[in-house]
Amino acid sequence: MLAPASELGTSRMAVGHRTGVGRGAAVVALALLATLTGACGRSTSGVALARCGPSSVRATFSLVPGSQGAGQVEYTLTITNTGRASCTISGLPAIRLLGAGHVALATRAHADGGGSHAVKLAAGRWAQSNATFSPDIAASNEPGDRCEPLAYSLALTLRGGGRLLAPMDPTMVCQHGAIAFTRLRVVPRTSPCRSSSLAGSFRAVGAPYSGQATYALVLSNHGTAPCVVVGTPHVELESRGGDPVPTSPLDPVAYPYVIAPSQRATLDANAYTNPGPGEPTHGDCEAPASRVALTMPDGGGKLTLAIAPPRAFCRRGQLVLSGLFLNG
After folding, report:
1. Contacts of 229 (CB under 8 A, 6+ apart)
2. Which position among 55, 75, 254, 325 has the lowest Cβ density within 10 Å, counted as fewest Cβ atoms?
3. What is the phi-psi region of residue 124: left when phi exceeds 0, alpha when psi lies from -120 to 50, beta otherwise?
């Protein structure tokens, strides 16, 4: 069900012993370690790479659709190099949850594995870390069903200096802001998904209930290589003849989804079937939509799908979109 606008983020919902090694071998091992350490943060030409700074990267913190269960949820932190040159990130940045008005909230973030590590980000590429936390199981000294205030963004302090804000799908983070992150990993270079390599459908999931209807948008990669969708396709409702029908999509916080060959990706589109302010209370609230036009990000072209069954989407075609579920 759709929640009030102030709660939409929640509804989108929605961690040195001694050995028998000889002295000579130990010296060799130390020399190798020094070589590897010196190479960290350097390009193949031997020139040291600059650290990624807040002016050259952007970040998002996004709900992983379908990850809710057993009191836990998964989010993905994505850090993208928006600059023109490669740079390095030395491990997970220091993290602080922020509430409404950027008020600092209780945060206990840690990275699995520990130790130091660095990732190299080429221009236009991104690194990701998965985060797990509880949005609804309160600690013994937290209030019951509202364990902490809603968090609306992350403040990231990069190692070496610099701070940036990562917008996020709003949520409560219980257990006093406890979040477990995996190590940052670089997402392999992947071409954007093109409409020519995608097939799809847009079908109702069950019958409308309590003034709302849910549709599932399914995209299948029938190409021979993986492709990436950054965020969600732009959605535009159309009449049977192809004329535009009022559409007001509410997108989740965007992050990259890599779709493998023969893999399917699904997103949910929640819509209103009851009229909103200014719409007719008898008959169709808006012109019925029979098709949905999807414009793929990054110049990936346009894909038009039939809506099954056709429907009048109320409140000026408001659609609350989830992120993409990746299926086998």
Report:
1. 192, 193, 219, 256, 257, 259, 265, 296, 297, 300, 324
2. 55
3. left
Q: Which string of DSSP letters, residue by residue, matches 125-187?
A: -EEEEEEEE-SS---TTS-SS--SPPEEEEEEE-TTS-EEEEEEEEE--HHHHEEEEPPPEEP
Q: Are residues 178 and 51 in the same domain?
A: yes
Q: What confidence tens digit (pLDDT) does each residue in 47-95 have?
A: 557 888 898 899 999 888 888 888 999 999 999 998 899 999 988 899 9
Residues 299 and 196 in one domain: yes
Residues 176 and 227 in one domain: no
Q: Which residue has the tokens 């200096």?
A: 161
Which residues are CB-contacts of 235 (< 8 A; sequence separation ≥ 6)? 217, 247, 249, 269, 292, 293, 294, 319, 321
Tokens of 64: 């992983």
Phi, psi of 221 (to 5 degrees): -90, 105
